[in-house]
From TrEMBL:
Cited InterPro entries: Ferritin-like (IPR012347), Ferritin-like_SF (IPR009078), Pigment-catalase-like (IPR052965)
Protein name, per record: Ferritin-like diiron domain-containing protein
Signal peptide (from-to): 1-18
Key words, A-Z: Signal
Length: 388
């Protein structure tokens, strides 16, 4: 059921009567709420673009049978309601809400759209979880927690639809402000001049070129962005978890490339960073990352529909034509290497030749998933190269 305007107004009034926006370690509650609004704008724009570009029939042809399409529309509506809620809450508290930016999403068919959507939902869950500790007022914390639980449902639904475990582990992984911004900034082309500066920056890129799902104990390759000089004697790999970093063996293979062994204690959509020293993983000592890796065995695609047949002919649609999320999530998204603060003037404009959305993926849902995702990865790499 959609969040009614009456309920939205009532909840916003409740936030308006909370204590004044307070500050902790240079980050105010207004900063946190605007940070959340920045992410919600991105997600809302992503779903709006996808539902504009792909029809109900397109999703059916890709193997996603009813009621998947209607549920996806509800997910899109949720994101729009989150934007409205946070915008009104900030205004009610006397703060200026950020406006939507211009975005570039490297998805040109249903398969790549859903794969990217699942990654964004997972990052959204980690973002809200990581930001919770910075919210001083309990009313704002409750509001953010209410959005977090909905984002988690979105994530679980898409994971199940694409063949990943809906809840891969007992605890979700939190990400700090800069870690989330590193992952999100690649989709932002430019922002309105009126948007205020948020206290965030992007770390140098860390990529995982392998498209294979990772298993505990297996080795995967990492590539640090050009210009990042690292002495592996004091560089470590840390997988971010709610109880702290899980350190993993790291070996240099030359030319900015490393091998890391997937440790025990991580599963599902996980995040790995390179750090200087192995005492902690914080903004002060993160050298590159995070990279995203999907850890665990795939469940097999479900389609999340009432039937398995697709198309008007009623013929069986092979769900193997739908790329497994493990193929996407095991690939890190390349990021800007410069440590930029997020402000109206810090986002570079993107030419047509560098635009992720201008890069073809593959023609139709029946295309080969591996080649399709290779093209998506190439589009993301083009964005990262442009932003560096």
């Amino acid at each position: 059921m959609k969040f009614s305007s009456v309920a939205l107004a009532g909840a916003t009034m409740g936030l308006a009567h909370a204590t004044p926006l307070t500050e902790r370690a240079g980050v105010t509650d207004a900063d946190v709420l605007n940070y959340a609004l920045t992410l919600e704008h991105l997600e809302a724009a992503f779903y709006q673009e996808g539902l504009k570009n792909y029809t109900h029939a397109d999703f059916q042809k890709a193997g996603m049978q009813d009621p998947f399409y209607m549920n996806l529309k509800e997910t899109a509506s949720d994101e729009q309601q989150h934007v409205k809620f946070l915008t009104k809450a900030l205004k009610a508290a006397g703060a200026k809400p950020v406006e939507a930016c211009t975005y570039a999403f490297p998805a040109t068919d249903v398969s790549s759209f859903l794969a990217l959507g699942n990654v964004l939902e997972g990052v959204g869950v980690s973002a809200y979880l990581g930001a919770a500790a910075s919210i001083m007022d309990k009313t704002y914390l409750t509001a953010a927690g209410s959005i977090l639980t909905t984002e988690a449902r979105h994530s679980a639904y898409l994971r199940a639809a694409l063949g990943e475990a809906p809840a891969a582990q007992a605890f979700d992984n939190p990400l700090d402000f800069d870690e989330v911004y590193t992952l999100a900034s690649m989709f932002i082309v430019s922002c309105p001049e009126s948007n205020g500066k948020l206290p965030v920056k992007a770390f140098p890129a860390l990529t995982m070129p392998s498209m294979a799902p990772a298993k505990t104990g297996s080795k995967v390759e990492l590539m640090a962005a050009g210009g990042v000089s690292m002495d592996t004697k004091d560089v470590y790999a840390a997988f971010i978890t709610v109880t702290g970093p899980v350190w993993a063996p790291l070996a240099s293979t030359g030319n900015g490339k490393f091998e890391v062994t997937i440790p025990e204690g991580v599963a599902g959509q996980s995040y790995v960073v390179l750090t200087k020293g192995n005492k902690n993983a914080s903004d002060d000592n993160i050298l590159a990352g995070p990279a995203i890796v999907e850890v665990g065995e795939p469940n097999g695609p479900m389609g999340m529909g009432s039937q398995c047949s697709g198309g008007s002919s009623g013929s069986m649609t092979s769900m193997t034509s739908m790329p497994s999320m493990s193929a996407w999530s095991s690939m890190a998204m390349p990021m800007p290497t410069a440590s930029k603060t997020m402000s109206s003037g810090s986002m570079p404009s993107m030419s047509a030749s560098a635009s992720a959305s201008s890069t073809p993926v593959f023609n139709g849902a029946s295309g080969k998933s591996m080649s399709g995702f290779a093209s998506v990865f190439a589009a993301l790499a083009a964005v990262a190269a442009f932003l560096q």
